[in-house]
Design a protein that fits this description.
Layout lengths: L7 E9 L7 E9 L19 H8 L10 E3 L23
Parallel strand pairs: 2-3
Antiparallel strand pairs: 1-2
Amino acid sequence: MPVAIPDALFKLVARKSDKVDSQYEVLGFVFPQDSPYYAERYWESSRWRASVARIELLAGHKLVSPAISFSELSVTELWRQRREDFEPGCLRFAP
C-alpha cells in the first residue's frame, strides 16, 4: 500500500510582542523533507524562513486568524538560540 510522504513540514512560532500590547511576533519556516544541509552539525534555521502567506498558500489553509494581530519578523530578527533552550534529543544541533 503506497504511503504519502510530505515534501516538507512547516512551523509557525509565535510569541507575545514586548513592543506592542496584544500583538504577536511570528516566525515562519518550511523545512524540506530531504536536504544536504541536514548532514551539517550546525543548525541554521534562518535558511528555512518563509512568510506566513507562503506557508498558508502551500498548506491550502488560513493558519492565522484575522482576529489575531501579528507582525512577521525578518531574518535578521530571529530570536537568539541558546543551548539550554533545546530539547535534550536535539542538543546535537545546538550552537
